[in-house]
Amino acid sequence: MENNKQKIGLVVDDICSLPEKILAEFQIEVVKMKLYFPEWEKFPEKNLYQLMKETKAHPKTSAPSPGDYLKAYKKLLENFEKVLVVTLSSKLSATYSSARQAKELMPDPSKIEIFDSLLASAPEGLLALRAGELIREGKNLEEIVKTLGNLREKAKLFGFLETTYWVEKIGRMSHWQGKAFGILKSLGVQPMIGIKKGKVGLTGFNFWTRDILEALFHQLKHEAKKQKIRLGINYTDNIDLAYKLKEKVEKELGAEVLFTSLAPPIIGANSGPGTLLAGCLSV
């Protein structure tokens, strides 16, 4: 039976925001984060971000359990010899820890390889997608992990928030940082969020425009001058803006946008309505 199995299966968490089409194409198993938002249960017909704006209530989130990962491992090992797991940054969530605990519960832990992306959102998705491509190319686990490690160092996340209200509520930004953010925005300066060494925070400022689309495009243009890049875009309640950015990037930069997808509720719950994110990975 072992001879009939494919070599490597791939597990990701839903923070990577890969669309269903890509997940199906590469046979990727998704372990989902947990979200608890009573207001959404009362009004399921309403949009999550609409409810957040109306109620000012903040959804509660938590990492998948080791049991969630254990279930995914067992499922994939029915058809694959080994499993590669790409996780959300270990510095942002207990997801990586849950994946490791589940590995130790397996009869043969050596069949599971866990890779901490030190990323989140679109760049995590780009890294996971590259892992899928490398598996398809026939690379072994050691080669794949080495390549992912090199790509991780140059991966970037750029994002602009409508307000800091939501990131302050979850403790990702202090009240005083939020005040400074608000003052800068009132002066026409766009503070930018990103990810450094596995942690999300303020990473720069855009002084050229108040327009989120133009601000993001400026950052991506700067990256495209340094290296050839592939991109992923995440939106919350601003799908039209996301597709305008995609069109502009492809037309003016000639860069490939591999996916434009709705940010998972966990991302949107923490960054808030109006957030637009773009990730890039070197080719």
UniProtKB/TrEMBL annotation:
<dbReference type="Pfam" id="PF02645">
    <property type="entry name" value="DegV"/>
</dbReference>
<dbReference type="GO" id="GO:0008289">
    <property type="term" value="F:lipid binding"/>
</dbReference>
<keyword id="KW-0446">Lipid-binding</keyword>
<dbReference type="InterPro" id="IPR003797">
    <property type="entry name" value="DegV"/>
</dbReference>
<protein>
    <recommendedName>
        <fullName>Fatty acid-binding protein DegV</fullName>
    </recommendedName>
</protein>
<dbReference type="InterPro" id="IPR043168">
    <property type="entry name" value="DegV_C"/>
</dbReference>
<dbReference type="InterPro" id="IPR050270">
    <property type="entry name" value="DegV_domain_contain"/>
</dbReference>
